[in-house]
């Protein structure tokens, strides 16, 4: 029982929508969505500077994109000041399927 309570209260960082939705279904109450792909674009050590630089870089891109979902919530909350970082912090990722 203690493990279930610890799971629900932990900070869960999810990098895709299906994982985020599944965590909520399982009762996780502190899910942080992140869509930041660090492979492309600028990166900074300071979280606030990193967020500011990435937002400026993406807004200058000619590619059309939205940083919010249908309800208006930001997709990437990793650098948000309202995130509660409660231990344990669990990172979730989903392996991309490959066609062979």
Report on this model:
There is one protein chain. The longest helix has 13 residues. The model has no long low-confidence stretch (mean pLDDT 76). It is built from three helices and three strands. It is 30% helix and 12% strand.
Low-confidence stretches: none
> Strand pairing plus helix content: what structural class?
alpha/beta
| Through-space gap between termini | 42 Å
How many whole angstroms does the radius of gyration measure?
15 Å
Order the strands across the largest sheet as they lie in space.
Answer: 2-1-3
Q: Report the major sheet.
A: 3 strands, parallel
Sheet-strand content, in percent, reads 5-15%
If you average the pLDDT, what whole number results?
76
* Count of distinct strands: 3
Strand and helix order:
HEHEHE
By DSSP (H or I, 4+ residues per run), the number of helices equals: 3
User: Helix proportion of residues, in percent?
Assistant: 25-40%
Overall 3D geometry?
globular
What key phrases describe this protein's structure?
100 residues; alpha/beta; single chain
Describe the secondary-structure layout:
Elements: H1 2-9, E1 11-14, H2 17-25, E2 30-33, H3 47-59, E3 89-92
Parallel strand pairs: 1-2, 1-3
């Amino acid at each position: 029982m203690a493990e279930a309570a610890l799971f629900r209260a932990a900070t869960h960082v999810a990098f895709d929508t299906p994982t985020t939705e599944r965590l909520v279904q399982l009762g996780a109450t502190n899910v942080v969505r992140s869509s930041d792909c660090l492979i492309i674009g600028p990166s900074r050590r300071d979280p606030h500077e990193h967020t500011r630089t990435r937002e400026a870089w993406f807004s200058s891109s000619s590619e059309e994109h939205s940083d919010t979902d249908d309800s208006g919530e930001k997709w990437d909350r990793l650098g948000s000041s309202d995130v509660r970082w409660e231990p344990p912090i669990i990172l979730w990722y989903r392996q991309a399927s490959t066609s062979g």
